[in-house]
Amino acid sequence: MNDAFHAVKPDDVGLSGERLARVDAWREALIRDGKLAGATTLVMRRGQVAHLGCSGLADMERGVAMTPDSILRIYSMTKPLTSVAIMMLYEEGRFQLDDPVTRFLPCFRDMRVFTGGSRGSFESVPAERDITFRDLLTHTAGLTYGFMQSTLVDAMYREQGVDFQTSDRSLGEVVELAASLPLLAQPGRAWNYSIATDVLGHLVAVISGQDFGDFMRQRIIAPLGMADTDFHVPEHKLPRFAACYARGQDGRPVLIDDPREGRFSAPRAICSGGGGLVSTVWDYARFCRFLLNKGELEGVRLLGRKTVELMMSNHLDGDMAAMGQARFSESTYTGIGFGLGFSVMLDPARAQILGTPGECAWGGAASTAFWVDPVEDMAVILLTQLMPSSTYPLRRELRVLTYQAITD
Q1: What's the domain range around 139?
Q2: What residue stretches are annotated with the Beta-lactamase-related domain (predicted)?
Q3: pTM above 0.85, yes or no
Q4: Among 118, 178, 294, 362, who pairs with 308 as Cys (CB 3.0-4.6 Å)?
Q5: Is the pLDDT of residue 325 over 70?
Q6: One domain, residues 268 and 344
Q7: 107, 138: one domain
Q8: Is the separation of the CB atoms in 265 and 233 below 8 Å?
Q9: pLDDT at res. 237
């Protein structure tokens, strides 16, 4: 058990140990059936760890077991930390949520919105207004991702190299490339999962005058005691770094990123605010506790209570189903809204899943997930390494298995 956490009996925090054992059975079956190489699950309630389980291998090729100290790619679970970074600057009075980002990034002036045509000759209209900070935080800026492969704008991103994971360009250069391409929708009109949080990372650097990666390490990661969280894995920690897999033709995991030789094994050209961090279950549990504590952890306060409450509020006009198109799998759409950096549960009945209104969540491309439930004072983390996250309905299954264990 990590020194910062105290293990308790589930019954001491209103959970059934017998029912929580279903999480272990589920996780172990996923390994036994060859769907996952390895996985870790953690359930925390009232600040205490009531469940922690690890199964399988972090690295099948080397026979390395999955443990609570294993380091994994969390991809889009980076986004909430980047959102905390920009909101720290918001609290310093550097900008307002409805301010246009052109105050700091003039490259986003005079944007145009794609309306039709082909890559060689597309049609567009002028944007009705500038993109705001709120648009970026809620993924309603009209930006997109190249990997979506759903629209011509996605294709333009791929052709022009708008990729914050693999590019050799600087963070600012890739942001400027994105700003040279048309928007997918008018700012504020539609929810589209996008590079918006990478743009926020660049804004953190521009507004603070500090390299984005350094800001994250010095002002968030270190103060929260997230000792193994970073944008790359140093050499002495590589033995703890998990391999990343995809589902093979026979249904079993196939290696797609070797932990000793992949791009996370050395410092990277871009620290991606949208998906660049690696972490451990212990480190992310500290971040979850920080959120549940409304911006404070062990005497260190990074955000005020009211700011965290604002982040955990739905900022969409309704749910994501009313404002977006289901083109990704980090969340369902119906009954789920979006706050400033993560999804927000609005109506569990409409979402057709156990949960609590006001619960915040997000996941990563390698099938990782977390959620924090302020009403139940509870957090759940799933760490594994299987791409894409749509391969199996792991998140929905784990939701049922954890919420059904509440007894008080």
Answers
A1: 96-202
A2: 28-399
A3: yes
A4: 294
A5: no
A6: yes
A7: yes
A8: yes
A9: 98
* Separation between Cα atoms, residue 408 and residue 283, nearest integer Å: 28
Over residues 86-104, the mean pLDDT reads 98
Q: For residue 298, what pLDDT is reported?
A: 97
For residue 365, which of 324, 321, 328, 326 has the smallest C-alpha distance?
A: 328
Structure tokens at 113: 């919105």
**For 109-138, what is each residue's pLDDT tens digit?**
999 999 998 767 789 999 999 999 999 999
> CATH number, domain at 65?
3.40.710.10
Q: Could you give the strand order of the β-sheet that contains 369-373, starting from the edge strand earlier in sequence?
A: 64-65, 48-59, 38-45, 378-384, 369-373, 360-363, 343-345, 336-338
Distance CA 92, CA 86 (A): 10
Query: Which tokens is 246 given?
Result: 């995809």
The answer to which of 84-88, 241-245, 266-270, 291-295 has the lowest mean pLDDT is 266-270
In a domain, 408, yes or no: no
**Helix intervals (H) in 161-195:** 171-179
Q: What is the pLDDT of residue 205?
A: 98
Cis peptide before 348 (omega within 30 of 0): no
- Find out whether 102 and 280 touch, Cβ atoms under 8 Å: no
How many domains does the chain divide into? 2
Residues 161 and 146: their CA atoms lie apart, in Å, by 9
Contact 359, 342 (CB under 8 A): no
> Are residues 377 and 342 both part of a single domain?
yes
Of 42, 51, 47, residue with least CA distance to 11: 51
DSSP notation for 36-91: -SEEEEEEEETTEEEEEEEEEEEETTTTEEP-TT-BEE-GGGGHHHHHHHHHHHHH
- Look-up: residue for tokens 């009996």? 9
Domain boundary, last residue among 202, 231, 251: 202
Residue 244 in contact with residue 73, Cβ under 8 Å? yes
